[in-house]
Each structure stands twice: as C-alpha cells, then as structure tokens.
Design brief:
With 790 residues, the protein is of the alpha/beta class. The chain has 4 domains: 241 residues, 3-Layer(aba) Sandwich (Rossmann fold); 154 residues; 121 residues, NAD(P)-binding Rossmann-like Domain (Rossmann fold); 177 residues, 3-Layer(aba) Sandwich (Rossmann fold), CATH 3.40.50. The protein is 34% helix and 19% strand. Helix 3 links the parallel strand 3 and strand 4. It starts with a helix and ends with a helix. About 3% of the residues have low confidence.
Length: 790
C-alpha cells in the first residue's frame, strides 16, 4: 500500500506541462515532500527551500523558470510578502505553480473539518470564532478564491489562472481550468476523500450536477492549483484526469488541451512502466475498428497517445435524455449498444473455473474471447446526427479486455453505470428491473456484479488501498446518522432514533407489546440480524401490496392497515426504512405518533452482549474452559492449570470461518484463542455464504459444521454468520468483542488490516495466529478428490 500511496501528492503537479530543461525552485513549509521533489527533479534542475529561509535565497541566472509550492500560502505568516519574494526570483518568462486550500470548499460545507483547526466550519466563517491565542497556536489557515486573487494582485501578479482540484491537494485526481466545467456526471467517477470523514453529513459527489448548473463549481472547489506568470502565456490544459491509484503500469494523465483554438485529448504515462499501456490501447482500438465498430481516431506521438476532441455528449447522458423524449428510441439505442458488444470479439466456450462454479449450471450466454470490459456508455460518445444508429456510438479509452468474458457482464456494467447517478426522473421513466429483464441480466446478477467488482478492484488496487481509504472515505452508515442528528433536537433524536426499545414492555402488565417493523427491505434485514432472538416481531408492514401475505424470516408481511386494529397501548412501531419521511407522514395521517426509527449506524444495546457479560461475571459458559473458572489449557494440551482468567489479556474473543472438514489446525486455533480470552465466540459461515464467497460447495453441511465447532471444549458460543451481514464490523456491533483472532495468512492482507484498524479505532484489536502447516481444509479436499478420482 505504501508504494502506491507515497506518490499521491504528486497528483497536484504531474498533469502540468513543464518545459525542459529548466531551473525549478521547490518551496515547502514544515517538512519537504520527497515525492514532489523527486518528480520535479525529473523535469529539471531543482533547488529546495523552506519558506522561512526564502530571504536568504538568490535567483539563478536570470531567475527560476518554475517556482512550485503546495500549501505554502496557508502556512505563511505573510503570504503577500512570500509572493513578492517569489516575484523577484522568477525569470521574465517563468511560472509559479501554487497549490492552495479553499476555505469555501464544498467538502467543508459537507461537514469535513478544517485541516488547521480540526473544527467544522471554521474556514467558512473566516475563523472569526478563534481567539488571538488560538490563532497563534494553529499552523495555518485557508483562503477563498477572492482573497487569493487579491494577494496575487498585491504581489504584482496580473496574469493568474486558477485550476480547481479534486478531491484534495494531497490526492488530486481531477483538475479543471477556471473557465472549463465537467461535462459528465461526477457522481459516476468521483470518490470524495476527507480529513475527518466521521463528521461528514452530505454526499458530496451528488451535489456537483446542480453546482455546475448554477455556476458554483469553481467557487466551491475543494482546492486550487494556481498558475502565475509575468507574460500572460498560460498552460494549455483545460482538464486533466490523474489515475495514480492504478499503480505504475496503469497510471495515466488524460488531458484536454486547447491550442490555437483547437482542442485535443492526450494520454501520458506517469511512469516509464506505463508506456506500453498506450500501445496496447492503440492496438485495442484498431481491433475494434477492424470489427466495424466506430472508435475515435488516435495516434501515438512519442510518449503520448493523442485523439481529437469530440464535440458530442457522453453516451450515458445522451441515453438518459433520449429516454425522456422517447422510451422506444432509448431501448433501440440500448439494443444497438449491446449488438456492438456482441460484435466486438470472436466467441468461445471457455470460461474461468471460478465463474463456471458460481454459475452452478445457469446459462451465461455468449462468451467473448476478448471482452472489452470498458465498452460502456461512460467511455463512448453518442452522436445523434449520424444516420447509421450503431455508428452513433463512438468508443474511446479501451485500455483493457478480459479473456473469456460473458457479453452480459459488459452489458450489466453499462446498465449499472446508467442507473448509478442522480437522475431520478429517468429512473422513474425506465425502471432498472425492466432493463435487466430485457437483456436477461436478472437471473445471474450476482455473477455480473462480482465480475464487474473484480475488474474495478484490480484496476484501482482497491484491496491494497483499502486501509488508506479507510481513514479518508465516508462510511455511509455514519453519514446517515450524522444527517439525522442535524434534523432533530437532541431530545427528539434520543427518543426517536436511540431509545427505540423504550416502552416496548408494558409498564403495567410487564408484557412486551406487539413489535411491528415498517419496511421489508435491507434495513429490516439488518434489524432482524442485529436483534435475532432478542425480541419477538409480531409483524412486518409494507406499502408494497405484492408483499402482503408473504413471509420474511418467518414473520408475516401485512398492510399498514393492521395498525388500525391494534390499540396504541399494545403496539410498538419501529420504522426500518432509509428514506422514512413518507412513512412518517403516512403515520401522522393515521394519527399515529408513537413510532421510532431504526438507524443502522447507532450502537444499540442487545441481549447477546448482555448475555456474554453475564456469563463472564458468573464465570460460566458452554465451553470447558469457561466452566472451569481459574483454569486454562496448557501448551501440552494436558488440561493443567497454568494461570487465572484475570491474567488473560482479553475478555471476549471472536473467530470467523467455514471450518469445513474440521481438523487439527482449527483445533489449534481455538486453543490458542481460548488461552488469550475468557469467552470465545466462533462465527460459522453458512452454506450459502461459502457458495457466494468461495464459489465452491462445502464438503460438510452447515448444521454439522457448527455442531462440531460448538462441541469443541475451547468454544463458549458458536453462531451462524448471516449471508449479508457476516463481516467483522457487523459482528463487532453485535458483541463488542475485545479481539478477533485470524490465521497468519491474512496478516498482510490489506482488507484484513483495514478491519484491524477499524477494531482498534473502536477499542478492540485483531491478533493473527500461525496456521498448522501440515494440515488445511484445502489439502484435505485435494486428498479426498484425488482418492475419488482413482
């Protein structure tokens, strides 16, 4: 992960067209960024200097060709004086490139904290709440575009060009010149990153469509890169996309440039390893052109892949607008797009084994030898003026293909991209289910989803980068909770969202009221998982009449009209719907005010945690070690007493696994875990979970596997892991265990390290044990299969 992230900070300048050879002055505040300095050294002769030592610096020759600084204005005590000094050091045809924060950044409006004060909204308020003492304590402050412009004017810079940078200066991925705005829906490509994601309460990526329409995109940019000069000649970049997260072989800078009134698009490899990618892309486009598919003209010029700028809408946007005018025309265009996918490659009967196993006999349709996985409406234009309907699609950016790929997997990606946006009017006109049904995508949706995710995860190194993004991206459940807290007074929020079980027990009779859940979707699924066995649910109610009379986890689903027949004193209503406002109004219309709202982001008490705590207090449990309070199992497995439970580092421990073909390795893990905790909980993956996650059939059925685990003397509690809520975070919410134990083969796995970091942020941890090398379920399965094959 560190190898991938160490150069992220160069994104702020890697897109810029430095002219070589040149003399560069790199200014920094605090500690020098070695990645930025190293990148600049590849462009010319570099002199590095801390801004506090700038007075002692002399210009070289007729001055520096470039002066580069990131966050130096914010951290300077006298930014205007700093700019004046830079003015003196610059050559007559030189350029200053400054990376600056924007105190009116949309990310701060969304709830992110100021990087210098660690408080929300300080910059937006122009730091007016800070005392003189506070001002002296902070390392810097952010400025607005107007303030930065005034500073530059005061320092003698009359020719300045602002570029808006997203999501931040530290991880710049998108750059837009001050007069150029996005022409695509950013919600599809843009993933916000924050200083403090846990305080965010708005989904930034979905705000940009309206900001652009209202001319506010640049004013509310998260950061600026400012090019200053003395002669009025600026860089010709209008827009750049930087993909440093893809790693050295795939990292590219894609730029739209305008020179003498002519726009062109170029792709440049960030690292030497990536130059072959440009050749591969050119070969892929030629292959598609030879198959009669319309692609953008392109050529390779040195280390650049060059295309003309196509003045046509992105197909994703054009298709939505087409649907609003004429639904039949929309489907005709979608049919054409699918036919082009089918036309893009020869067919084969081969398919990767893991996908064949997960298909479990289902028909995957046409298999393409070379599946151009990016033949999607986000990577092509749609020119309605062309007479041939298929030729209206003009493809570009075909960097990748997947061997032996079902055509339906590519079509599914296209449909997902079209519907994963903000255009609710389009979604009402053309329901997603209707499109999935038309192209036969519904039956194997789990497979298409997995194939698409696998490609994206590999391309963007999501697994390796997960621990990094864990501290930068918003958890949707936390955002939801933050948003709800704003909408209510503290007392109202506590009553409606937190104390959701208060009043469930009748204070007079002592009996539980009828618990009724409103909603039968994912929130209800999570509620039932979280409180399974804790409360008896009388009924689930839903406005969808097609669900009335059906069951959900053996609970009947009924019409909301049943509330009319249940007296208020006998019912307890909990709304389990994300967009609950309509239901609240519906209940008010029925003169019902006694409701609560379930928020998956809240940490509710549950009886499982209480039960574990009680057993610990009593020194009892289902496992032998828990019953024999004051004893543990020695290393030689003799059962000798060697320590008291008070000496164990953890109270509650947790292990998750399949535990197929139970063997000595599993036993050793349970034993080691029990030696470190007083109460051991083991989660056992269901048969459905094994099929979904491992694309394989377990040898031993779930009921037998969990019974073997439960019977082990080191195990205090064995539980079934839900298909949809089986992760570390879900189980931690249930039990608040002190430690999770895992095998050492996951010790350096980024996904597991992200879970370890989550646990540590919440007062728990993760411990890795070495596996018993001589035995594993995989080895046993292979041995059994080899014997069967004889």
């Amino acid at each position: 992960m560190e190898t991938l992230t160490k150069n992220f900070s160069t994104g702020a300048i890697v897109w810029y067209n430095f002219k070589s050879p040149c003399n560069i002055l790199y200014l920094y505040s605090g500690r020098q960024d070695d990645s930025v300095c190293s990148f600049l050294k590849g462009k010319g002769c570099v002199n590095s200097c801390n801004i506090t030592q700038l007075n002692d610096l002399k210009s070289v020759g007729r001055g520096y060709d470039y002066i580069v600084g990131i966050d130096i204005l914010e951290e300077s005590k006298s930014p205007v004086e700093l700019l004046k000094q830079c003015h003196k050091l610059l050559s007559p045809a030189g350029r200053i490139l400054l990376g600056t924060e924007n105190r009116y950044a949309i990310k701060y409006i969304c709830g992110d904290r100021d990087p210098y004060t660690n408080h929300s909204f300080d910059g937006i308020e122009n730091y007016r709440r800070l005392s003189d003492a506070d001002r002296g304590m902070i390392a810097g402050r952010c400025y607005s575009m107007a303030e930065l412009t005034d500073m530059l004017d005061a320092a003698g810079f009359s020719y300045n060009r602002f570029y808006s940078a997203m999501p931040s200066l530290q991880e710049t991925q998108l750059v837009y010149e001050q007069d150029y705005e996005p022409v695509e829906e950013l919600a599809m490509r843009y993933f916000p990153l924050y200083n403090y994601p846990d305080s965010v309460f708005l989904e930034e990526q979905f705000l940009y469509t309206d900001l652009i329409k209202n001319g506010m995109f640049h004013k509310l940019a998260n950061a600026y890169i400012i090019e200053c000069n003395l002669d009025g000649a600026h860089d010709d970049t209008l827009h750049a996309t930087i993909s440093l997260d893809r790693g050295p072989e795939n990292a590219l800078v894609t730029s739209i440039c305008e020179r003498d009134g002519v726009k062109t698009v170029s792709k440049r490899a960030v690292y030497g390893e990536g130059t072959k990618k440009l050749k591969e892309m050119q070969d892929n486009l030629k292959d598609l052109r030879d198959r009669g598919i319309n692609v953008v003209d392109s050529y390779i010029d040195g280390d650049c892949f060059v295309m003309p700028f196509v003045d046509a809408p992105i197909a994703m946007n054009a298709l939505k607008e087409l649907a609003k005018r004429d639904k039949d025309s929309f489907f005709k265009a979608l049919d054409d797009m699918y036919e082009l996918v089918l036309q893009s490659s020869d067919y084969t009967d081969e398919i990767p084994e893991k996908d064949r196993n997960s298909a479990n006999g289902r028909d995957l349709g046409v298999i393409l030898e070379r599946g151009y996985i990016d033949m999607v409406p986000l990577n092509c234009f749609y020119d309605a003026s062309v007479s041939d309907s298929k030729s209206r699609f003009i493809y570009y950016d075909q960097e990748f293909y997947v061997r032996n790929c079902p055509a339906k997997a590519i079509m599914y990606r296209s449909v997902s991209i079209i519907y994963d946006g903000t255009d609710k009017e389009f979604e009402r006109l053309v329901p997603r289910a209707e499109v999935l049904e038309r192209y036969g995508l519904a039956e194997c949706e789990d497979i298409w989803m997995r194939m698409s995710s696998r490609f994206t995860e590999t391309l963007r190194n999501q697994k390796e980068l997960r621990p990094y993004y864990e501290n930068k991206r918003v958890d949707g459940r936390i955002l939801y909770t933050n948003r709800e807290k704003i909408n209510y007074s503290a007392a109202e929020y506590q009553r409606i969202f937190v104390d959701i079980f208060d009043g469930l027990e009748d204070g007079i009779s002592g009996k539980e009221k009828k618990l009724i859940l409103f909603g039968s979707g994912r929130f209800t699924e999570r509620f039932l998982f979280q409180f399974a066995g804790d409360y008896e649910v009388y009924s689930i109610i839903d406005n969808n009449s097609s669900k009335w009379g059906t069951m959900m986890h053996d609970i009947p689903i009924n019409s909301p009209d049943i509330l009319k027949d249940i007296p208020e004193a006998e019912r307890h209503i909990i709304i389990c719907i994300k967009g609950y406002n309509g239901v609240v109004n519906q209940l008010k219309g029925m003169e019902i005010a006694d409701y609560h709202i379930y928020d998956p982001g809240n940490d509710y008490p549950n009886k499982r945690k209480e039960r574990v705590a009680a057993r610990l207090a009593a020194g009892t449990g289902t496992g032998t070690s828990a019953v024999c309070r004051g004893t543990t199992i020695s290393d030689d497995n003799s059962g000798a007493v060697n320590e008291s439970p008070d000496d164990k580092p953890y109270n509650v421990g947790y292990i998750a696994g399949v535990f197929d073909l139970f063997h000595i390795g599993h036993l050793n893990m349970f034993k080691r875990a029990k030696e470190q905790c007083r109460y051991l909980i083991v989660g056992v993956v269901s048969d459905e979970g094994v099929r979904l996650n491992k694309q394989a059939e377990p040898f031993v059925p779930f009921e037998e596997r969990i019974e073997m685990v439960r019977s082990c003397k080191y195990v205090d509690e064995a539980v079934k892991l839900s298909l949809n809520f089986a992760g570390t975070r879900d189980m931690f919410k249930l039990y608040h265990f002190d430690v999770q134990f895992s095998g050492s083969d996951y010790e350096h796995d980024p996904a597991w390290l992200a879970e370890k970091e989550f646990l540590e942020k919440n007062g728990s941890t993760m411990v890795f044990f070495p596996y018993t090398q001589s035995t594993s379920s995989t080895k046993l399965k292979k041995a059994i299969e080899s014997q069967i094959g004889k």
